[in-house]
Design goal:
Distance between the termini: 17 Å
Strand content: 15-25%
Order of helices and strands: HEEHEEHHEEHEEHHEHH
Number of strands: 9
Strand order of the largest sheet: 6-5-4-3-7
Shape: globular
Number of helices: 9
């Protein structure tokens, strides 16, 4: 059973419709006024070029904003997260895809995904979608989080992960088994699996309740965590 659910925009409620443009509203405390401003950001061209030179496939990108209204409701310095996939095209996807019910059918993914040299996948009010890295960099501050080159299971962690192993794909079960045996697993072997899980969620709806116990819909951090 493919884990892809198409969000019908006609079923979007008033709250969800408002939140779709919520993140583009700036608020100024004195004098109090609101400004719809989706394009004025502190991260500029030279910063984007630095990101392009640094970022690697599999990196987690987190970003935040100054004065934007959603920042007053989402706690923390950063308010959004995405997963950097890098170069994505049909040839690459055909080379890594697996026939497993954990992943969506390849033809569905090819229909929904956007090919490009530097692609990011993330979840916003519109649902899970892909866009160019330069679009994702339209923010006021940003950080790149990177996995180590080799993954190992640390002392005392992983029990919850391994208890869910029956829900994994064959490849995920193999990785989990190696980690459970305290083996070192190169991240390069894990990345294609993360990519397939992530792309299988394209068009899944946004979780406006932020319920991390239910993956029917996915907020931005839920999506990254899930993948």
């Amino acid at each position: 059973m493919a884990l892809v659910r198409k969000t019908d925009p006609r079923k979007k409620g008033i709250l969800e419709s408002f939140l779709t443009v919520f993140g583009d509203l700036k608020v100024f405390r004195w004098p109090l006024f609101f400004l719809y401003d989706p394009g004025s950001y502190l991260v500029k061209g030279k910063d984007m070029r630095e990101v392009i030179n640094i970022v690697r496939p599999g990196d987690i990108l987190v970003r935040g904003y100054v004065n934007y209204l959603d920042g007053y409701f989402i706690p923390g310095y950063f308010s959004h997260a995405g997963l950097y996939l890098g170069h994505v095209d049909a040839e690459y996807l055909k080379s890594i895809w697996s026939d497993d019910e954990r992943y969506a059918p390849l033809d569905e993914v090819l229909e929904k995904c956007h090919a490009g040299e530097q692609m990011v996948i993330h979840s916003m009010a519109e649902g899970v979608f892909m866009e160019d890295l330069l679009n994702f960099c339209r923010c006021d501050h940003m950080m790149i989080l990177r996995f180590p080159d080799n993954l190992t299971r640390g002392p005392g962690n992983g029990e919850k992960l391994f208890s869910k192993a029956e829900e994994f794909s064959r490849e995920e079960k193999e990785i989990a088994s190696r980690l459970e045996r305290r083996e070192s697993v190169p991240f390069s072997e894990v990345l294609p699996v993360i990519t397939k899980v992530a792309l299988s969620q394209l068009d899944r709806g946004y979780d406006f309740r932020f319920d991390f116990a239910d993956f029917e819909n996915l907020s931005c951090t839920e999506f990254v965590y899930y993948a």
